[in-house]
């Protein structure tokens, strides 16, 4: 409420604490809260997507004492061998991109908590869910820092039966006001 | 020594703990060690570059109780206003790219610890140092997880007078052996 800034095109700018500069003390509290919500769900791995998700995933993984694995957005020559891939449309960057994840890091024995900073249309999340399906991994939960409640991603995931926890859900955004959903 | 794999083109693959899957317990120990080395250097901000650096930076920032800021590799429409930019050549990705950092997150009042997973030719580090110079920020130290001691980046930074700590320095790499420098 104090630091978020609304910009044209439904952009909510939170770069002073969540996705450019990182308030690590806040992220630790975010991690504590995800642990409180998902601690009984048998999570043995945290999955996220570069770049901003990595900070949230690491600060949460400390509480679960499980490894993090992050999907990559660009193909590097360092990724060799077999990979899962899925195509994602990014509204932020205005283009499609492929995400990749090495097959050795996700398998049917994994029960995954998927974490990300934002959920809006849910395109990146669908890519991560697709990767989990390809791996035969179970999705134990989805944790989001900020959901844009006026865009369809969250409602679709809840309708599909996922245990989705969004720490803040923004229902309306105007130039000078954010309204959060009561939870 | 146990998990690193040598690949053609001087690639040292450590993706099972450092830059694809993340061993968060190890990263916490990495953070403790950087804190031990740099705790008396007046650091008030940790600077890194997406993506792998973010995990190391967050797990280190906990010990310093300072914010992290990470340079971005792609221009997003979420970054507006004034930014510092610098051009970096990536050997891993085989191309040049621009890094950007919002001016509001780095200023002459900052004394920065720069962290990254790898140091080889030092091209990304030069980009980060250039950004610090543009900002008028002081570089209090540079912390690296794995330095390739047979490539020139580390020697150049030490010759330039930076306080550089590399937790592991690989002096030689062959298909079946890594030799680490005594420190």
From TrEMBL, chains A, B:
It is an enzyme of class 2 (transferase). Residues 27-143 form the Phosphoribosyltransferase domain. Xanthine binds at residues 12, 19, 148. PANTHER family: HYPOXANTHINE/GUANINE PHOSPHORIBOSYLTRANSFERASE, XANTHINE PHOSPHORIBOSYLTRANSFERASE. Pathway: Purine metabolism; XMP biosynthesis via salvage pathway; XMP from xanthine: step 1/1. Keywords: Cytoplasm, Glycosyltransferase, Purine salvage, Transferase. It comes from the Bacteria. 5-phospho-alpha-D-ribose 1-diphosphate binds at residues 120-124. The lineage of its organism: Bacteria, Bacillati, Bacillota, Clostridia, Eubacteriales. GO terms for molecular function: xanthine phosphoribosyltransferase activity. Its main location: cytoplasm. It catalyses: XMP + diphosphate = xanthine + 5-phospho-alpha-D-ribose 1-diphosphate. Belongs to the purine/pyrimidine phosphoribosyltransferase family. Xpt subfamily. Converts the preformed base xanthine, a product of nucleic acid breakdown, to xanthosine 5'-monophosphate (XMP), so it can be reused for RNA or DNA synthesis. Its EC number is 2.4.2.22. Homodimer. It comes from Gemmiger formicilis. GO terms for cellular component: cytoplasm. One of its GO terms (biological process) is xanthine metabolic process. The gene is xpt. It is found in: Cytoplasm. The keyword Cytoplasm applies. This is Xanthine phosphoribosyltransferase.
